[in-house]
Amino acid sequence: MHEEPSVASAPRGGVVAEAVARGLGALDERQAKTLLAEYGVPVPEGGLASDADEAAALARGLDCPVALKAVGSHIGHKTDRGLVALNLYGDDAVRAAARDLLVRAGCEDAVLLVERMVRGQREFMLGMKRDPLFGPVILFGIGGIFAEAHKDIAFGVTPLEERDIEGMLSGIRASSLLGGFRGMAPVDREALAAAIRALERIAVDHPAVVEIDVNPLIIEGATPVAADALVVLDPSAAQHPPAHRTYAAPDLSPLLAPGSVAVIGASNDLRKWGGSLMRNLIEGGFAGPIYPVNGRGGTVQDLPAFASVAVLPEAPDLALVAVKAPQVNAALEECGRRGVRAALVVAAGFSEAGEEGAALEAELVKTARRWGITLIGPNCMGLLSLHSHLHAVGFLELRPPAGRLSIVSQSGNIGVQLVTRAERRGIGIDAYVSVGNQASTSALDVLDAMADEPKTAAALVYLEGVGDGRHFFDVARRITPKKPVVVLRGGLTELGVRAAVSHTGAMAGAAEVFMAAAHQAGCLVRTGPDESLDVAMCLTALPLPKGRRIAVMTLGGGWGVLAADEVARAGLELAPLTPEVFAELDALLPGYWSRNNPIDLVAAIGSDLAQRALTVLVESEAVDAVAVLGILNSPSTGAIADEALLVDGPGGPCRGMFNAEETSFLMRVTELMERTGKPIINVPLRPLETATFHGSGRYDAVIVYSPVAAIRAFSALAWYREYVDGRAG
């Protein structure tokens, strides 16, 4: 039997209110189980006894083997202290164990919890922790005394959708234990999901509950039963529940599409910020008026300079502030009085420099808010808006082509690295924003605004930390159904479980919670610049696959093996070849071709034959995507060491242009994607600096460095397609 949840008219969780009124820091096990039962979580039948005789009487009433535990307000870690006795049957055994436990407990308020033994071979754990950044987080995983050894857990950030709960259940390595296993019945997944929802409701209803641990959660038959439970309280939290915050995305139009720009601190000296910003604005081809502001007047880089913002012929949309830190606030005040809508401050010497700088930064924020100025920085590298021909970056000449990918970075150097790599590989950029110290406008604010930016098809954001986890979660959930977000994440040094203890508080480390939140919100998290850029590029240039079935067409067997291995690791499938595909490939290839997927073309090809073989694969109903390995920049497409086509690449000279046969092949790639809606990714035999080939339709041919990179990109595309379809459903 299991105790039924309370149906009394009194509010659920009265046990919490009573404990908070007494200033207790935790509920004992009996109180914790009472709370769980009120919210519908099955618990074993039992009761409390104050001495050995009462314990024996309770055990007789249960008429089955019992578990005996010493509980009390000052008793924790019962198993470690030897305060648990299991599988007791009969008066003598129960009395002897009861006396021993009371002596071991050694405290006046100790009582005995007598419960029916829960029988089951599968033990899980369930928990809730209030994360300081994300709020209530639910944990599910393998439980029992070896939970810390298994470290097999999944997290869910509340509020949880049905798909989030299902993702937690299937997200542990041992998820097969939830099905029929070695003669055991499948676990009642609905009951398990209901237990997860119960913990979420407790967190919402009771701000004083800061942690819940249910370990073990034993599967008895098919039903999950809370065999042990702990609830940690913070009585002060009941008086100050977390406030719900709302956020408004900033208006980025004066930043990304300004009609005019002022450079405050403009200079003829290109070694200064004011000089390099001016040069890049002019040479980048910005079409609107550029107003150099310099106290000496005269001319700056052949443009008439103005002594102050106040005397400008108009109020510019954007001010680039390139004066020293102590002068910035006065410049911002002047911008506010003149009606400037946005300001970007490049100067360092603010919060990153200590208390004095932090005070200066706080003044900047006050000034910007008082005048309604969208403030970027301070201590940032600048911004690019390629469709506006706005190159507002100091010192560096960043000239990526215009495209559909936007980059936001908390780090100036990482942002520059990403944009530089995009430039060298021909990846089109819509905008790049370096947010610096994020004094007023954060990377999340910029990302939020880009959700509605029509020229941005995908965003790549570098984050070192998330100051407000709930803001990140809400922004990501809003934007990802519309367009994909790739997160290049730094600071994930806590990957894996941090502490070898089996309670929720230690199991839910900051890194794990962030990864769970990002996954739930539809973000694709990567930890390397190249893979991040590959995934982001593919999301802007390729159709999303309808499934996970991949065909690998390769010029050599070795690359096919690497690709097949990565297909298995990435949770994809090698597409089965149908009889029709076999017949068509048999007509094209020598009789000794592999007759398998990966399709090894055994070097017996020319560019036209490669196009025909690719067409056969892409048009097959059994194929969702195709990886093309080793065709480009190989003898099969007529690639020769033509000096006119060589450029300097990261690993030495490489080809940066396509010959006529390659151009024809890539045109066929784009035509096939347009017609079938299936993505195709190319890996050249030898390095190609170019990463894209622009077709005449919606999609571009994409080129990545390795078979592994191609398969990982397919995995990202497939996952994002499933996420979007799941949200739409």
Task: Provide a compact summary of the structure.
The protein has 729 residues and is α/β, with parallel strands linked by helices.
Task: Please explain how this structure is put together.
By secondary structure, the protein is an alpha/beta fold. Among the domains are: 73 residues, ATP-grasp fold, A domain (Dna Ligase, domain 1), CATH 3.30.1490.20; 204 residues, Rossmann fold; 186 residues, Succinyl-CoA synthetase domains (Rossmann fold, 3-Layer(aba) Sandwich), CATH 3.40.50.261. It is built from 23 helices and 34 strands. Strands 1, 6, 7, 8, 9, 10 and 11 form a seven-stranded antiparallel sheet that branches. Helix 12 links the parallel strand 17 and strand 18. Helix 3 crosses helix 4 and helix 19 runs parallel beside helix 23. The longest helix has 22 residues. It is flat. The N terminus is likely disordered.
Protein structure class: alpha/beta
User: What is the global morphology?
Assistant: flat
CATH class of the domain at 253-456: Alpha Beta
CATH architecture descriptor text of the domain at 253-456: 3-Layer(aba) Sandwich
Mean pLDDT: 89
* Spans of at least 5 consecutive residues with low confidence: 1-10, 494-508
